[in-house]
Design brief:
By secondary structure, the protein is of the alpha/beta class. It has a single domain, classed as TIM Barrel (Alpha-Beta Barrel). Helix content is about 35%, strand content about 15%. It contains twelve helices and eight strands. Helix 11 packs across helix 12. The longest helix is centred in the C-terminal third of the chain and has 15 residues. The chain starts with a strand and ends in a 15-residue tail after the last helix. Pfam families: DUF72. This is DUF72 domain-containing protein.
């Protein structure tokens, strides 16, 4: 199956009826798409009650891609509210319990930072993460080109296959070592993840400037680009049973519209989505 969705569910205004409360947005979101990326888990390990609420608000076939907490991927800025890495991983794993029990956890995404390059030390840390996460399905997203340089490419793919990591295939501007190319290679026969960040090359380089996050993902895919991704997704679907494609280009509110357009171009229709009851009020 090809699961299509966006990152987060709070900011996609074109999906929601006027006046819908924030607490109801996930329920209404699930009437449009069968999967979503949970971003709030990157900024803080979520209380189990939040994860249970989100699990209960979605239909049986809905799937969550949960982003790993920033302290687990080396993004942390300031003090981490855990006494040890062991405690941090334990707390994060515990938070996943409701989704695991309901069969709604597609994977946890470890998105490593641009400075996480291809070194022996970092390979060891990736193995450490796998050990601490146990049997949880894990996806990995690199943001440093060294992992895909000619001298490391085959070893990177082989390593991910051997360690049973789900490869994250990205679409993003090619802007130096802090960006990665499109690599249409699955490393897990069950699942592959695609994340579309847009192609705003100028914005991608503005890291650290005011509002850089908003500028970085300001991009709207055109029809030609989306048709290309229909073909790319089909190629990856030959390699993996399930492919998850998430649109992250939402600085200008484009992600949901692009995801809908992608579904039309791909001829994909989902059964068993949530009912659109909120449209009645």
């Amino acid at each position: 199956m090809i699961y299509t969705g966006v990152t987060g569910w709070g900011d996609h205004d074109t999906l929601y009826t006027q006046g819908v409360a924030s607490r109801d947005k996930l329920t209404e979101y699930a009437a449009h798409f069968p999967t979503v990326e949970v971003d709030s888990s990157f900024y803080a390990v979520q209380p189990e009650r939040n994860m249970r609420k989100w699990t209960d608000e979605t239909p049986d076939g809905f799937r969550f891609v949960v982003k790993a907490y920033q302290g687990m991927t080396g993004h942390e800025r300031g003090e981490i509210p855990f006494e040890s890495k062991e405690e941090m991983f334990q707390a994060f794993n515990l938070s996943l319990t409701p989704m695991i029990e309901a069969g709604k956890l597609a994977m946890v995404l470890f998105q490593f930072p641009p400075w996480f390059d291809c070194t022996r030390e970092n390979v060891i840390y990736i193995r450490y993460c796998k050990e601490k996460m146990g049997d949880v399905p894990l996806a990995i997203e690199f943001r440093n080109q060294t992992w895909y340089k000619a001298k490391f490419f085959d070893k990177t793919i082989s390593f991910l296959e051997q360690e049973n990591w789900i490869h994250t295939v990205c679409d993003e501007p090619q802007a130096g070592d802090g960006s990665i190319p499109i690599v249409l290679q699955a490393t897990n026969k069950e699942k592959t993840l695609i994340r579309l960040h847009g192609r705003n090359r100028a914005g991608w380089r503005k890291n650290g400037q005011k509002n850089w996050r908003e500028v970085r993902y300001l991009y709207r895919y055109n029809e030609h680009e989306l048709r290309q991704w229909v073909d790319f997704t089909n190629e990856l679907h030959k390699q993996s049973k399930d492919v998850y494609i998430l649109f992250n280009n939402n600085s200008g509110g484009d992600a949901a519209d692009n995801a809908k357009q992608y579904l039309d171009l791909a001829g994909i229709h989902y059964d068993n989505l949530a009912s659109r009851q909120l449209d009645l009020f």
